[in-house]
Amino acid sequence: MSPEQRERELRGLIAPIAEELDACSVDLTRELDSASEAVREVVAHANRYRGKRLRAANVLLVASACGRVTPAHVKIAAIVEMIHMATLVHDDVLDGAEVRRRVATPNARFGNEVAVLLGDWIYARAFSISTKLESQTCSRVLAETTATICRGEIEQSLAKYDFGLTVERYLEMIDAKTAALYAASCELGARYADAREECVRAARVFGRSLGLAFQIVDDCLDLDGSESEVGKSLGTDVVEGKITLPILHLLARGGPRERRRVEEIFRAEGSFDRVGALAAELDLIGAIEASYADAERYLRAALDALGPFPPSPARDCMAAMAEYVLCRRW
Amino acid sequence: MSPEQRERELRGLIAPIAEELDACSVDLTRELDSASEAVREVVAHANRYRGKRLRAANVLLVASACGRVTPAHVKIAAIVEMIHMATLVHDDVLDGAEVRRRVATPNARFGNEVAVLLGDWIYARAFSISTKLESQTCSRVLAETTATICRGEIEQSLAKYDFGLTVERYLEMIDAKTAALYAASCELGARYADAREECVRAARVFGRSLGLAFQIVDDCLDLDGSESEVGKSLGTDVVEGKITLPILHLLARGGPRERRRVEEIFRAEGSFDRVGALAAELDLIGAIEASYADAERYLRAALDALGPFPPSPARDCMAAMAEYVLCRRW
Fold first, then answer.
1. By CB atoms within 10 Å of each CB, which of A105, A169, B298, B324 scores lowest?
2. The domain spanning residue B84 has which CATH number?
3. pTM for the whole thing?
């Protein structure tokens, strides 16, 4: 799919809040500016990193589905994207990634030291902006969520090469590292629209389910996606020893032979095509399909959560967003 | 000086707020706890990192000098120490440091990945706690200050091996990376004691001056301190190409021969004793003494800032703190 096709596909999903999402991007660029010339150059680079802005879109879509998109929502959408950007900057340092979204990563361009500090700066700037909103809710929810994200990533890092990982613990980890920020984005969209508590709760369930599905699909794409479609290096989970859902299905469905084979592939050294070897095993046993089936269950939960929202174009887009997350190939 | 002597020396400085500082330490340990077992182990390790707690002491001393130490101050003191701790965790990753305060660094113990994420987690936790205070002031001031610290560190990182660095830019950098957190600690001590605006301003000036002096002395100790007294590896600035005030004095006072010699020493490879070679040059030209004279000027500014505070044991301790920062050998 060409970048233009992707752009069109995404624009359809966010039509009811397209204007606000553009305002959010302008805001983001302004807030990422710094009085310091050195920082300005480094940050401008990170800003080219901008992706699908799904988290920002969720803040605004939920707000619109609750009947009220305010200037505070645009700010919150920008803050959420900044937090996501900071996690990406640090992830790329830790993975030694050189390219993301076809742009050199900050660590590749400025070195690890500047990249770690840049991530810290973006986090701090995001919190700083949140403290200028009228209520403390946004600051509180997003600081807690950021701690949750880091907790999930620490757990994941410590669980590398742990072939005894359970599906339950895997789900807890992706809940923390990915779904928490989706849930928080949707919650804040509802809270700052003064929605009823029932809608706030439903918004959280929608966001969390969407986030879980998103991460499962991401983990599948890392194993069977096409690099030219996804736009980043794939197979990195295997290289780093991350045990994801398809691998867990393979281990659960296979016998001792499969277990030995998986461990052998993960621990293989040199230029051996680990992803290719794994793909053959995964295929044989239907582990990718089983993972997509899990993702689909979360998407159904996301759709079910839309109940309390009155019919509206924004609500329809939330439903379409859920479908998109499952079908995306990038 | 033995650890016991140090402890006594510091306890004298903080006598009026000793109880509150102990409460702050208890608070810190509680707040650093995590429901996640993996995170708990990693964080418990970082908590052994605890140092002189000068920033926490400043929050409490200023509050006491303003006539009112509240439970919010104890919280703020803990938050400030957490932010400082997070910067240390990341600094140690970036410097590849293996020991700090006689304890293995988190990166040495758990690897860089976990250590970067741990720093992020501590930052997020600190902000999260601040959002539970009644007013947004603490969250706002500390988020802005953290962005300032990171900005200063990014600038310093980009200025490595820049022998054209000016004293003015050096001062701007240490103002951001070190003095800003001292200034914020003192400001918050005054604000949460409902002090008059004149005292808040004076508290900021006191903290900022103290912080500048502290960093200049730190930069001197890195070049001429004793490792057994300071308790961490010294000479690291030279190894990393950081141009600090003594070097700037040496460059300013020396001629072309000294400039060539400094560049040669900084760029020397292998096991060459760079610090020893620099010490000879610095000694000859009185560059360390000149730097201490600068630090003394800032300390005088700190003492002058005490004017608006009424006489009190806490105010006397603030004055003693300033003297201590200049005379400390660790």
1. A169
2. 1.10.600.10
3. 0.93
